Amino acid sequence: MKILQTVEKIPGGLMVVPLVLGMLTNSFFPSLLNIGQFTTALFKTGGFTILSLFIFCAGSQIKINEARLPLTKGLSLTLLKLILGSALGLLCAYLYGPMGIFGLSPLAMVAAMSNTNAGVYAALSDAYGDESDRGAVSVVSLNEGPFFTLLAFGISGISVIPLTDFLGILIPLILGFILGNLDADIRAFLRPGQKLTIPFFAFPIGAGMHIETLIKAGLSGVILGILTMVITGLLGYLIMNKIFARRGPPILSGAFIGTTAGNAVATPAAMALIDPTWGPYAQMATAQVAASVIITALCMPLIVSWLNKRHQNKRPT
């Protein structure tokens, strides 16, 4: 059976397939994930640990003499995601208040649209990107989580900026970067970790979701997912090509950020703890963000695959 080849034929399959399997397992057989300490750690609670290992391995592959382009791309993608993802939600909060519009809370909009799913980015950069795109994942990973969401609300005077979250992501990246540049053998040793770890953190992320979240969020969750892909993914793709592809081949990495990070699901609850005025909206916002996580993880790889084929068809034979 050629399971791996079949999975890799699916756009972003190394991320999407384990994520869906984790969600289905948690929805229909949740007790399987709590059998024992080691099983639970690997398939239920260890997602962030393995993702941290991925960031460490990715950092080790950034060569100091070749770091300029990956860092430039990574910073550009991170800023694009923050600006594009936060602008609509903050504008909605300014115009309509915490209730938002069309059933979408500004809390859900900023939480979902300003956080990139680093796992999906990693899978897409491995399939459709170049070395600079894969190197940029270390910087892009900085906006997976509540830090930049809280930063956006903090700039508008709503929340406190948690610097520890920022430092917590930087440390594995910096350590990997240092070791990879001190010893080429260590860099070669850690290189397979970039790809190997993807399905192992994807499954636990999926295991934190439930099919009912899609039903609960309803149409508003679907709209949020579409907005995330269009505003941060497709618009990010167009802007990145304006910046980097003036004389070279098309840049697909701008579309890689059109997703919602899995741990963004916890952001509404965190905001409600910081500012109780968001409490009444946190539960629905959580469901909407979860819906956006699933929708963008499933659909954005298909969009990237279509963009890639579109460019290939335009290439002269």
Q: How would you characterize the overall build of this protein?
A:
- The chain has 317 residues and is mostly helical.
- It has a single domain (13-310), classed as Na+/H+ antiporter like fold, CATH 1.20.1530.20.
- The protein contains 17 helices and no strands.
- The chain has helices at 3-9, 13-28, 37-45, 47-60, 68-96, 106-113, 118-128, 131-140, 147-155, 163-182, 184-190, 193-196, 198-207, 211-244, 253-256, 267-274, 279-314.
- α6 runs parallel beside α17.
- The radius of gyration is 19 Å and the shape is globular.
Produce a short descriptive summary:
This protein is mostly helical and 317 residues long. The protein has helices spanning 3-9, 13-28, 37-45, 47-60, 68-96, 106-113, 118-128, 131-140, 147-155, 163-182, 184-190, 193-196, 198-207, 211-244, 253-256, 267-274, 279-314.
Overall spatial form? globular
Low-confidence stretches: none
Total strands: 0
- Largest sheet, strands/sense/barrel: none
Give me the number of helical elements.
Answer: 17
H/E series, N to C?
Answer: HHHHHHHHHHHHHHHHH
Q: First CA to last CA: what distance?
A: 35 Å
CATH topology: Na+/H+ antiporter like fold
Number of domains: 1
Radius of gyration: 19 Å
- The proportion of residues forming helix, as a percent range, comes to over 70%
